[in-house]
Amino acid sequence: MSTQAMSDAKIPVALTHASSEKLSRHEMLRWINTTVQGEYTKIEDLCSGVAYCQIMEMLFPNSVGMKKIKVNAKLEHEFLHNLKLFQMAFTRINYEKSVPIERLIKGRFQDNFEFLQWFKKFYDVHAGGKENVKLPTTQKQQTNLKTKTTKKVLNRVGSDMTPPTANSTQLNADESGSPRSLKYLQETRDKLAEQTAAILNERNFYYKKLLDVENVSRRVAGACIGYIIC
């Protein structure tokens, strides 16, 4: 579809209760899974941006580009890639909408559910009369493979100071199949190792100080006792 054609297809969406029936989280997930032939189990998993990109491409062909979507996304930089594609799709169809990428990418339920409610209204308006809106067969197959793999990103492990083992790192790298993912895991492991070493050094430093204070206290106490005896 040309840019002009996509522009002509634009219909303003009024965010009113009349625009779309208010659905529960389970009904929303059922709609998403039916539309993209996916297996999403949590609203939070939509933070990957995959489903949004797929539905946008279904409504406005060539607004996203199926080959550009990282359908196996499970790391934050991959979520960011997909959500930026999604944002650019609105620009291509000349529709003014700011996607709250920074909030969606954190994978919180409330942020993702609120945006999904808005997007369902957008879909209902723009899918009207498009009975044949379907996901391409190849995209269906890819979606079914990895819709359950979207998880919290590794940069949230800052509170857990145990570095990943070599085996777990290799496993994650094999699952992602991406050199960038392997590099990301290695950098995360190295960073955690440095933080652990720094904490241990600080602990040893203060422990030594406590020993020094204890030794000084003993000498002072001994001197005082000797003075009293004299």
Automatic annotation (TrEMBL):
Region (Disordered): 157-179
Domain Calponin-homology (CH) residue range list: 22-124
PROSITE patterns for the chain: CH (PS50021)
CDD domains noted in UniProt: CH_SF
MF terms in GO: microtubule binding
Annotated Polar residues bias: 162-179
Database matches in Pfam families: CH (PF00307)
Originating species: Bactrocera dorsalis
Main localization (coarse): cytoplasm
Signal peptide: none
Compartments (UniProt record): Cytoplasm, Cytoskeleton
GO CC annotation terms, alphabetical: cytoskeleton
UniProt similarity note: Belongs to the MAPRE family.
Listed name of the protein: Microtubule-associated protein RP/EB family member 1
InterPro entries: CH_dom, CH_dom_sf, MAPRE
Alphabetic keyword roster: Cytoplasm, Cytoskeleton
